[in-house]
Amino acid sequence: MSSQSYDLILRHCRLLRSPDALESVDVGIQAGKIMAIAPHLEATAQQELDMQGQLVSPPFVESHIHLDSALTAGEPRWNESGTLFEGIEIWRDRKQSLTLEDVKQRAIATLKQQAMQGVLFVRSHADVSETNLTALQALLAVREEVQDWITLQVVAFPQDGIYGNPQNQALMEEALKLGVDVVGGIPHYELTREDGVRSVQQVFEWAQQYDRLIDIHCDEIDDDQSRFLEVVAAYAIRTGLGSRVTASHTTAFGSYNNAYAYKLMGFLQRAQLNFIANPLINITLQGRTDTYPKRRGVTRVKELWQQGLNVSLGHDCVQDPWYSLGTGNMLDVAFMAVHVCQMTGMGEIDACYDMVTWQGAKTLGLGDQYGVEVGKPANLIVLAASDRYDAIRRRASVRYVISQGRLLVEMEPTKMIWHR
Ligand SMILES: [Zn+2]
């Protein structure tokens, strides 16, 4: 009998250790780290939890959200056209009244909603096209405040374009100096195509100068002539920054003709960028100027995945001027991806789960910080499900969330009584 003792032992886990490995094991946790994984641990612990064969998975990763605008839907008015551009106008008005407290309170409320549903890693954009950088300062403060239970990356996001306003370039530089993790851009919303190309070049220069990751809102439009993805790919190839670069949305890629898309796919292979699709938002905001047939407005998720490129999925918005719905549940996002991207094959459904877990972790550059393995930080979730397919099909509830070795959330199973 071993005298080994842990802080916490999870018994009878159905552990999703890697995308294709399900194991029946116990997990021993000590001092915030995973210390042992074995079919049966001969050890004691201060606390033992019986997982009863439920699915134990690495946490969900939210790779694309805007926490600064979250929970503002209807303020100061509702988005009646449902378009991206009316959303930007409404946000332009709402952000006049931002205060540090306002942003912090909504961001933390949203992060709690996410954590309750198994999200422990989040990348949020912070709009920096507002003179006081209120949204950015608030999210940087939140990043520190929540670091004991959730990891937040902050992107400097020039919502109105880097060159859309004379002061925006300086605001981006200021944001970098204040300590953002990631440099953002929005080339398709710059005033001209030339400004768009110039903005991509500037983003890469800043990323190199300040040693930051890149995440560009790229071609989030149905215009089949919006072709900044090729510009981002070209800079990634020339700089060799590939895996540190993410192209978010790329919805125009869904409208490109196949001859061009085929050529581009070869460049993307060389560039090895990360991609983020936001299926809830893309299916809702895009295609608004179409009559019929209406486009789905989502990037080529299946084809990028088939090419072996890293694709993750984001929620993008939770109750804001662009999307009045949303709860932060990543299984809702994966479920929508299965439908909108027609990822209904068995392996494809599983892949959509991977896009909100391992592939999101790759986008965020989490490296060894992510995954349920001996020696890694003890971040994991327990789902009322038997496997990835089951989790997505039923949008399974999260029973336990373990963050940095400690129980963060425990959810009682809901009770249903059948009366006949
Ligand atoms: Zn976005």
TrEMBL record:
It comes from the Bacteria. CDD domains: Bact_CD. This is Cytosine deaminase. PANTHER family: CYTOSINE DEAMINASE. Residues 47-408 form the Amidohydrolase domain. Pfam families: Amidohydro_3 (PF07969).
